[in-house]
Amino acid sequence: MHLLLIADTHVPKRATTLPDEVWAAAESADVVVHAGDWMTAALHDELHERTRRLIGVFGNNDGPDLRERLPEAAHVELGGLRVAVIHETGASQGREARCDRWFPDTDLLVFGHSHIPWDSTTPRGLRLLNPGSPTDRRKQPHHTYLTAEITGGRLHEVALHRL
Question: pTM of this prediction?
């Protein structure tokens, strides 16, 4: 199962739409995961129409239209992997221990908010991934997103893509 992981797209505030490379990755993915801060429901609608499966949550910058249709946290099983999605996880210091407590029955947590790519594993084995942002790099050197594969209930080939 091929995944595209994105967050903090901030469309149309930071970009009028997603970069072409991200659209291509979305259209070829089995599942697209968006970890919040869409900004408008129009991007959610377009991703929903152009992808096979979309999993998303609202972020701190998302208004009532998105908060009505999206959860604060999503929990799904993908190819035997227990996946959770949330926008904010708090400060980087202590993140692993905090997420172990918050998501005890999860194998993979996708989050956003910081616009900083993150890939770590907690003491109990929870994988934490933040794809950064494909449209608003802030102080990062590149706009970014992640792809990954799930095979046999395990996460493989996690790749950070720089735009």
Answer: 0.96
